[in-house]
Amino acid sequence: MTVPPLLEVSHLRVQYAVKTGLFGRVLDHINAVDDVSFSLQRGETLGLVGESGCGKSTLGRTVLALQKPAGGQVRLRNQDLFSLSPGELKHQRRFAQIIFQNPRSCFDPRRTLGSSVRMALDVQDMLDPSARDAAVAEIFRKVGLRPEHRQRYPHELSGGQLQRLGIARALILKPDLIVCDEPVSALDVSVQAQILNLLSDLRAELQLALIFVSHNLAVVEYIADRVAVMYYGRIVEIAPTRQLFADPQHPYTRALLSAVPSIDVARRAEPMPKLGDPPNPARLPSGCRFRSRCPMAMARCAVEDPQSVEIISGHWVACHAAAGPVGQ
Amino acid sequence: MSVILLDEPLVPTPPRWRRFVARLLRNPSVVVGGTILILLILLALFAPWVAPYDPFKVNPVQRLKPPSWLHLMGTDEVGRDLFSRLIFGSRYFLLICIVTASISASIGTLLGLIAGAGSVVTESIIMRLIDVMLAFPYILMVLVIVAILGPSLWTGMISIGIAGIPGYARLVRSAVLTVKREDYVVSARALGASEADILFRTILPNVLSPLIVYLAFSMPLAALVTSSLSFIGLGTQPPAPEWGAMLVNSRTYLFSAWWAVTGPGMALFISIFGLNILGNGLRDVLDPRSAA
Amino acid sequence: MMAMQQIETPQTGSPKNVQPLLRITGLTTEFRLEGGRRLQAVQDVDLDIGAGEILGLVGESGSGKSVFAQSILRLVQPPGQVVAGAIAFEGRSVMDMSARELSRWRGRDVGMIFQQPQSCLNPVRRIGWQVAEPLLLQEKLSRKAAWAGAVDLLRAVGIPAPEEKVLAYPHQLSGGQAQRVMIAIALALKPKLLIADEPTTALDVTIQAQILELLRESCRMLGTSLLLVTHDLGVVARLADRVAVMYAGRIVEEGPVETMLTAPAHPYTQGLIGAAPQLGQARGVRLKDIPGTIPDLSRLGAGCAFAPRCDARAGQNLESCTLSQPLPVSIRPRHRALCFAAKASSAVSPCEISP
User: Fold this and answer.
1) In CATH terms, is domain B26-52+59-290 a member of 1.10.3720.10?
2) CB within 10 Å: which end of chain C, N or C, has fewer?
3) Which of helix, strand or coil describes residue B154?
4) What ipTM did this prediction achieve?
C-alpha cells in the first residue's frame, strides 16, 4: 500500500446557489457535496450510488475540475487540480475523462462523429496531425464500430452506438481515470449489457480506474471493486463491493438494497422498506442527515453528526447505530 | 431516426449540405420566399439594365400618367417613370435590410454570447442594459436616435439597427444558456478546450439556427420601420426612389392617381411577405427535430 | 395508509370459462410516415386481462408497448391509427363505441398513470380540485362532497396530512407524492382497469418500492385489473400475475410470472433476463448481451423480427426464421411463445437460463 493513489479527494465541499439576488449575490445554497474524502488506486473501480440529488454526479464532475469546489482538495496523479495554472490544468485533463448518461446529448449535433472524437486529440495537441485520423479510426474499431462511422452525424446512430463512441472519445487520450456518469441508465437492457461488457474489457486491457456513478445497485455490484453510498452530499458508507452487499451497516444502505425489486419471483413477498419522503436539501435535519427517514434514529442522532468509522478493514460507516470500530 | 445494426452494411449518405439543400427545396415556403428574395437581389444588381428610364429624370409633360405601354406603372407628379423608380427602390430595400440587420445582429449576438457564457456579474450588467433599452418603446427609441443624429437614410438605418440589438441579445443569450448545459459542451471542457474555443466553435454553431430565423423575420420589420421613417420625413430624403419615400410623395394624389401609391405599396408588401415566409420555412427546416 | 397484507398467490389456478375483463384480438396499429412508408408499431396482438389480474407488459424502448396501451384506450393520435383488431371490454366492443360512450368509458371504467406525474398534473390548479374533478364530473357529487372525497383519496394513497395537501399545487409535491396523487385520481372512480405506463421509472428506488406496494394494495382492495407497462423485469416479478413480452410490435411470449421468469421459452425473453445484472449475482461473470439493436419497424422483413439478433437461430440454423413469421406455440398451459425454436427446445426440457 505504499503506492500513492491515483486520485485522492479530501474534505471536498461543493455548493450550489438555490437563490440569488439582483446581481448574482448568493442568498441561499445547498451543500451538494459535503466534506467528502476518498482515494482511488490505479485500475480500481469505485461505484458511487445514491438517489437523485444526493450529489453523486456533482462529486464525479468536481473530481474532473468541471465544477469549482467551495473547499477541499482533489489530487490527481499527486497534483492538486485546483491550484494548477490553466495551462497545467489543460494538460492534466488528458488523464481524467468523462462518459455521460445520455448518449444523444453528448455529441455536438453539427459535427461528424469522427470530428467530435478527433477534437480530443486536436485540443490536447496529441500525435502528429496527420496521424490523428488513423488514431480515430483505430479507436472506432476498438469500441466495435466501423471507421466509416466517422462521417456520420449523431442522429444517424442508435443510443448504444453513440455510447460506444462516448467511450471512444474518453479513451483516445489514454486517460488513467474515467468518470462514468450513469453510463447505462438511458440504455435498453439488452444494449446496457453490451456497454457494461465493453467497459469491463477495456478497463482490464488498459488498467483504467473508473468512478462509476449509478443509481442502479445491481449494475454497481456487477462492475465496481469498491462502493460508496452517498446521501445528501455525504458518503455514509464505503466498503469493498462484496463486503458492502453482504453486510451493509448503514440503515440507508440496507434500505436501498432491500428496495431493489428482485427478478426472483420467490422473493416477491419480502417486505419493502418504508422510508419517508426525502428532506429538503437546503434544510437538512440537524445531526445525522438521514435521521428524518431512519428506522433506527436515536436521541443522539439529532445532536451529533456521525463521523465515518472503520468497522472492518476498508469498511467505513457514518452511523451512530452501526457496529462500533474494530476492537471496541 | 434510423437505427443501424452493427453488422449492417453502411449505405453511403449524401453530404450534409446536399441533404440540407434537398430539405430546403422540399419546403414550399422556402421556395416561394427564396424566389422573391433572389428576384429582388437580381433586380437590385441589374437595375440600370432592367429599368426602361432614368429614375431621376423629370418630365413635366408626362406628369401623373396612368399605366400604359410607354410607362408600365404610370408616372409620378413630376413625370418620373414609376416602374424604373420601383426597380431602383429594391436597392434601397436590400441596403436597409442588410445594414440594419448587420448592426443589430453583430452587436446583439456578441452581447448575447457574452451574457450567456460569461460570469454572473457580466451577465447581470449586460442584461440590465438590455432591459433599459427594452423599456423604451421601439419607435420612440428610433426617433430619439434619429433626432440626435439628424434625419437621413443612414441615420435612420443606424438607429433602427441599434434599436434591434436587444432582440438579438436576448435570443442569443437564452439559446446559449440552453446549449451550454448540453453534455457535449461539458465534454469539450473536460477535453481541455478553452472557454473562447468552446464559445465560438461549439456553442455559436449551435445557436445559429434560431439566429438565422430571427434574422429573416427582423429584416422585413426593419425595412418597414425605415419606410415609415421616410413616410414621416425622417428617413430617406427626396428624390431618392425609396419605396417608403415614394409613398409619401404620392399620398397627396391618392384619389387622382391611384397607381402612384399602389406601386410602392405592392413592392413593399411582396418583399416583406417574401422574407416573412422565408423565415417561416427556415424555421421549419432548421428545427433539429425535422432533421431526418 | 392501507393495510399491508402478505401476498397470496393470485387466482392463477384453472382457466375459468368466465370472459376476461378485457379481450384484445388481432390489434394492429399503424403509423404513416413521410414518403408513404408505413410502420406497424403494434402488430396482430392478442391479449386477455382477467378481472383483478395484474398483467406486466415488458418491452424495451421502441417495442410498441406504450402505443399498445394507447391503442386499447383508442388514444392513438394521427399519423397513428388502429387499422385492425377487436377490443372487448366486458363483452362490449370498444372499437364500436361512439365518442360519447368512449369518453364515459375512459372516465368511469379505466384509469391511467404515466411515467412523469408532474407533467400530467395541471400546474395552476390545487391538487384537491384535480383529485375531486372525476368525482364532480362523473359521480355528480356536490363540490363539498367531492372535496371531502379528495381528502379521503389522498389519505388512502398515503399522502401525509391530506387536509393540508389538498391545497398544495403540483410543484410543491415531490416526485413520489405526485405519483401518489396521480394514483388517487386514477382510482377515484374505482375503475375496473388501471393502465400504468412506466409508473416508477422516473422515481428513486426507495420511492419506487412504496409506489409499487401502493399500486398492488389499491388494485387488490378495489378488485381493479392492472396493465403494468414497464421495461423492468424486477418490477414485473414483484407485482405481476402474468407477463407478456413485446418485441418489435408483437407479443413474443406470454405466461404466468413464475414460469416466464424461471423458464422463459423465447430467446428474447431469455436474453432480457440474462442481460440485466441482478443483486447477488456472481461478480466477474460476463453479462449475456443481446447483439445489435432494436430493428427499424418500418423496414422489417418477412421473418421473425428478432431473427438477426437471435442466439437460438444462430445455433440451430433455422431457415424459417428469416422467411416467415412464427405462429404462437403453446409451451405449457397458459404459456405461449412466438418462436420456431421455442417449440423445439421446450419439447425436450424447459429452457435453462444462464445466471
Assistant:
1) yes
2) C
3) helix
4) 0.85
